[in-house]
Design a protein that fits this description.
The protein is an alpha+beta fold. It is built from 7 helices and 11 strands.
């Protein structure tokens, strides 16, 4: 009888991982919203792969439950979210999965989850986010795995760490800087942003009025280019009567209220459909 062949692990093709800040925010938000009895949250990573570099651009959490050596994922929720994400951005594909907690903690369940995502994409990446907050920082690490099998049956899986860095676009960098500012306690709301815009507009109008008054009074020499610019700006402003302006403002408020009502209605419908149409399917 011929001996059963031993298949050794093959080195991973991915050698580095780039993570966008929105991925970290989404994972952190899912961790904060988890159930009290849940130790961690897991989910699916979306992005692109080019020249051995995995660029993680988006993600979503997947409901799950786990015990000592078993884990159950809401597979229907995973497939539904993957299909919706593909419709929004077809260039992003499933590239792996994420989890929160101590990255150094060894869990046999991670091999089961990794095997599941191995059926969803080739060479999945495991992104581990340390949410303990030790040292005032939140570390993120990436791992790839190699399987050791005998006779086509997988016996073990070895995780190897790869280079991982957080990359951001210019727009993302502005948002990160805003959130990391110590003096910024919260993001401004719609009304606060509108009030700030009116305040800046009032300051600009006051500066223009002071300049014109100084030129008319002979206290300051006038500039033809500035005068022409002010004249064009005033001519471009439409003239509304009081009643017409109030009617336009009321119509705008009604439109915003209707959009807000429809969005809340759709959100409630999706939450109800999710409760009625999803079920947890065990991996093992």
């Amino acid at each position: 009888m011929a001996p059963t062949p031993l298949t050794l692990a093959v080195g991973p093709t991915e050698n580095s991982v780039r993570v966008h800040p929105v991925v970290l925010f989404t994972i952190t938000d899912a961790f904060l919203r988890r159930k009290e009895e849940q130790e961690r949250v897991i989910g699916t990573l979306l992005g692109t792969i080019a020249d051995g570099v995995v660029e993680v651009k988006n993600c979503y959490a997947v409901p799950h439950s786990e015990s000592h050596d078993q884990v159950a994922l809401d597979v229907q929720h995973h497939h539904t979210m993957a299909a919706l994400q593909h419709r929004v951005n077809s260039r992003e594909q499933i590239v792996g999965w994420f989890s929160t907690g101590d990255p150094d903690a060894s869990r046999s369940r991670d091999a089961l989850i990794h095997s599941f995502y191995g059926n969803e994409c080739p060479n999945p990446v495991h992104l581990a986010l340390d949410t303990s907050g030790q040292g005032g920082t939140m570390s993120v690490r990436a791992f790839v795995s190699c399987a050791l099998s005998i006779g086509g049956r997988e016996l073990a899986r070895e995780f190897s760490e790869v280079d991982c860095e957080v990359r951001s676009t210019e727009a993302e960098r502005v948002g990160v800087d805003l959130l990391s500012t110590e003096l910024q306690e919260k993001l401004p709301g719609d009304m606060e942003g509108l009030a700030d815009s009116f305040e800046r507009l009032q300051q600009s109008l006051q500066q223009a009025q002071d300049y014109v008054d100084a030129v008319v009074a002979g206290k300051r020499k006038g500039n033809t280019a500035i005068g022409r610019y002010l004249a064009e700006t005033v001519a471009a402003v439409p003239h509304f009567g009081r009643e017409e302006f109030e009617r336009m403002l009321t119509d705008q408020q009604n439109d915003c209220t209707l959009v807000l009502f429809l969005s809340k209605l759709i959100q409630a419908h999706l939450a109800l459909a999710d409760k009625l149409g999803t079920m947890q399917l065990p991996l093992l």
